[in-house]
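> forwarded from #structure-qc
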């Protein structure tokens, strides 16, 4: 019985369980339930992630308030690490925000010691770079890209996702080796995330909750279902190799087992963020 082991051993065992196995174990008895609840409270604290990028707990609280104020979402590798309880050394903090709210986020970062690191064709000044992105964001021409970057050049900067339609600018800020990347969207940040290359990165963190849209595939089966194809039917996967090396196999389609699973998210049903197919984690209060 796990509960008879020393506390540190208990934690290691529970940590190795998949989210579903952890849930099933919590149903065994009251002690197991208490152990899993304690593990979840300690593990899924957003400050554990954000303190890798910001120096103090008040900074973390102010960042989360800024999320509430702007609708900014955390996604990419950072959100994946949060759900998987792991650390990818040197990985960025990817922030998705509407271009009209990006200035507030940039000012916050600069005030905390971050420096703008321009891309190949961006001005050296973040205010001017943002001004160009705002111009693109207000334009009806969705093929216009800040700084005149081609699709390929923009993809090199940002894991291969297209910058010409939903994304109007990508801005890197650095501070003592820490990198925060702001992805400024033309409209909803969630619209950008829903067009990611595959499902393992469809995880988001708001100011109050964390959501994984494909939790069974991502954290139990460890597969990532491709969502983007070229005209010849090949997977568009400039970023998939990175996640393959982190333990996710990219597949063209969900397996028959996944499709015919009871209440499968792949059957004909409408979905929304926070639905029964999501893994939803309420976050600790801002000033807890």
């Amino acid at each position: 019985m796990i509960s008879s082991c020393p506390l540190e051993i208990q934690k290691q065992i529970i940590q190795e369980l998949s989210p579903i196995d952890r849930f099933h174990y919590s149903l065994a008895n009251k002690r197991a339930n208490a152990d899993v609840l304690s593990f979840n409270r300690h593990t899924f604290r957003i400050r554990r992630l954000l303190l890798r990028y910001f120096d103090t707990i008040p900074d973390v609280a102010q960042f989360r308030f800024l999320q509430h104020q702007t609708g900014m979402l955390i996604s990419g590798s950072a959100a994946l690490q949060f759900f998987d309880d792991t650390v990818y050394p040197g990985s960025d903090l990817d922030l998705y925000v509407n271009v009209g709210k990006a200035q507030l986020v940039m000012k916050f970062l600069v005030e905390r010691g971050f420096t703008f690191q321009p891309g190949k064709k961006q001005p050296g000044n973040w205010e001017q770079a943002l001004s160009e992105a705002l111009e693109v964001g207000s334009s009806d021409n969705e093929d216009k890209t800040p700084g005149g970057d081609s699709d390929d050049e923009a993809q090199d900067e940002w894991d291969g996702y297209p910058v010409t339609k939903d994304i109007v600018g990508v801005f890197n800020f650095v501070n003592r080796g820490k990198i925060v990347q702001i992805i400024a969207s033309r409209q909803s940040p969630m619209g950008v995330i829903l067009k990611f290359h595959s499902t393992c990165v469809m995880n988001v963190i708001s100011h109050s909750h964390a959501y994984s849209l494909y939790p069974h595939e991502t954290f139990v089966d460890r597969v990532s279902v491709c969502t983007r194809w070229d005209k010849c039917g090949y997977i568009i996967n400039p970023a998939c190799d990175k996640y393959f090396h982190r333990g996710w196999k990219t597949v063209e389609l969900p397996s028959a087992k996944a499709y015919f699973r009871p209440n499968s998210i792949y059957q004909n049903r409408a979905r929304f963020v926070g639905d029964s197919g999501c893994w939803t984690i309420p976050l600790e209060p801002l000033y807890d």
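QC bot note: Residues 46-193 form one domain. The two ends are 33 Å apart (CA to CA).
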